[in-house]
Specification:
The chain is of the alpha/beta class and about 500 residues long. It has 3 domains: about 5-240, no CATH class; about 275-350, no CATH class; about 360-499, 3-Layer(aba) Sandwich (Rossmann fold), CATH 3.40.50. Helices cover about 60% and strands about 10% of the residues. It has helices at about 5-25, 40-70, 70-105, 115-120, 120-140, 145-175, 185-210, 220-240, 270-280, 295-300, 310-320, 335-350, 355-380, 405-410, 425-435, 450, 460-465, 475, 485-499; strands spanning about 245-250, 255-260, 265-270, 285-290, 305-310, 325-330, 385-390, 395-400, 415, 420-425, 435-440, 470. The strands form 3 sheets. Strands 7, 8, 9, 10, 11 and 12 form a 6-stranded mixed beta sheet that branches. Strands 4-3-5-6 form a 4-stranded parallel beta sheet, with helices on both faces.
């Protein structure tokens, strides 16, 4: 054995131990909600990102050491850490893009790469990370001065650290309830942080190995070989997942629903879920969208894989039916935010998670624009006291804790009804509250004329000054993909009433 091989034997062994240790923990990572075992590669990549961020401290220390000492030993360690960090950085970007491609499944969906980047900022971050890594790899070829390269290293550290921090921040914003870091399962957290430790061991072992190599030309080649090994290990972490594995999601009432994949036959007993399924372009798998009469026997005859309902009572009845083995999902969110969460959960349940993410991204952008319009066009006049009539006979209004209540708040309104739910009211109560604006749904059975003729309403300024408006019931009553259209409709109604 040559002197060089003896010198690098221990650090090289440490490097290989870290590589295969990360693979060992990745392959033992259990399924997580919404991703199943597809979570292995994203988690492997996430652990590598954490480790790389921590290793930037050692990289920066080597830069400072060289600038202060300016000797051959310091330069050798700086070069070793440069190759190590840039290598891990580049591999991390490639694995991040691969995991995103796997999760988003671009090849099997209508989602474009641009849509994916817009819906998930981490995709854009990975593109930037990859480009920066390649640029720094090329810097030694164009810079003759070692000090110039060291200052380029400083610039790279600042930009790279910022990009990685941005990617992680975007990830937390996109998934505030991270199924890994927030998991109640201690095993999941232990496996993740074990992978982080293994990646740190890999980085330290690789840098030490490269620093001990005597021949300068050997250093890039050795780095590339080890980095390729890390990349192949990452690919190994992605292999072996079961694409047909069950998906576990949480419905809008907090029930955990396990859905066997693939979902081929869907029954929807709620219009909101039906609209969502059509928006996600899985309508070809919907075998029934409404069932009348004895719905239990009719649903059983359809042999569905997945059933969407709008109440816990329906879910319990279907779950207790001996003739059904389908998963039952309650789609009855009561806020706009929960509606968007429900769309994501429905998308994951039916195997259309990429489409759901893009749809929710578009809806969030529209909602942000409405909030901006409320602030710019209505200013100090918000919130506007208003009453929303759901039904004329019996006289029912929308109270607190309802979807409409949340929508009118986002639109710049304030509900005069202080009770919770859709409740039967006395006409006198509404008159006493003196709403500035009255809104009735298109299915309420009312009209502007009948409201103006209602006893006591003639004393309201809202009636006297023509501030009585009709809104499309489907837009404000269905917690589905048109919910933001409902917020826009309410905003435009409030705006018309106040101008």
């Amino acid at each position: 054995m040559s002197a060089t091989m003896k010198r690098i034997a221990i650090p090289l062994s440490v490097t290989l131990l870290g590589i295969f240790g990360a693979l060992f923990f990745a392959l033992r990572f259990p399924a997580v909600e919404g991703l199943g075992t597809k979570a292995r590669l994203p988690v492997y990549h996430g652990a590598m990102t954490w480790a790389t961020l921590m290793m930037f401290a050692l990289y920066a220390a080597c830069v400072i050491w060289f600038l202060v000492r300016n000797n051959e030993r310091a330069w050798r360690w700086l070069s070793a850490w440069r190759w190590t960090i840039v290598g891990l950085w580049t591999v991390g970007a490639v694995l991040g893009f691969t995991s995103a491609w796997q999760v988003w499944d671009f090849s099997a969906s209508s989602i474009s790469l641009f849509d994916g980047m817009r819906a998930d900022p981490r995709l854009m971050a990975n593109v930037i990370i990859l480009c920066l890594g390649l640029i720094v790899l090329l810097l030694p070829l164009v810079l003759d001065s070692r000090k110039a390269r060291a200052f380029a290293d400083i610039a790279f550290i600042v930009i790279a650290f910022s990009a990685l921090a941005w990617a992680m921040t975007a990830g937390r914003a996109l998934h505030p309830n991270n199924p890994v870091l927030n998991s109640p399962d201690t095993l999941i957290r232990i496996l993740f942080f074990s992978m982080v430790v293994c990646h740190i061991v890999t980085a330290i072992g690789l840098a030490s190995t490269l620093a001990m190599l005597e021949k300068k030309r050997t250093l890039p080649l050795a780095a590339c070989l080890v980095i390729v090994a890390i990349a192949l290990t990452g690919c190994g972490a992605a292999s072996g997942y079961d694409d047909a594995m069950n998906v576990t999601v949480t419905d809008s009432v907090g029930r955990t629903v396990e859905v066997v994949q693939p979902v081929e036959r869907i029954v929807s007993l709620t219009p909101a879920a039906t609209e969502t399924l059509f928006a996600l372009e899985v309508d070809d798998r919907v075998v029934e969208v409404a069932v009348d009469g004895d719905y239990l026997s009719e649903v059983e005859a359809l042999s569905p894989n997945l059933i969407f309902v709008e109440s816990v009572e329906q879910a319990e009845a279907l779950t207790m039916s001996e003739g059904l083995s389908a998963a039952v999902f309650v789609a009855a969110p009561t806020t706009v935010e929960h509606t968007l969460d429900s769309i994501l959960a429905i998308g994951a349940a039916v195997g259309a998670a990429p489409q759901a993410r893009v749809l929710v991204t578009d809806l969030k952008e529209e909602l942000t624009q409405i909030e901006r319009d409320v602030e710019e066009q209505m200013g100090d006049i918000v919130p506007v006291p208003m009453f929303v009539e759901i039904e004329a006979d019996p006289f029912i209004g929308a109270g607190q804790g309802t979807l409409i209540n949340d929508m009118l708040i986002l639109a710049g309104g304030e509900n005069i009804v202080t009770e919770t739910g859709y409740i039967t009211l006395l006409v006198e109560d509404v008159v006493a509250a003196k709403p500035y604006l009255i809104v009735f749904t298109s299915t309420s059975g009312s009209s502007i004329e009948t409201i103006e003729e209602r006893p006591g309403f003639d004393a309201l300024n809202a009636v006297k000054q023509g501030r009585v408006f009709e809104v499309d019931a489907d837009l404000v009553m269905r917690p589905g993909p048109r919910v933001i259209e409902g917020v826009r409709a309410l905003f435009e109604t409030i705006l018309a009433a106040t101008n």
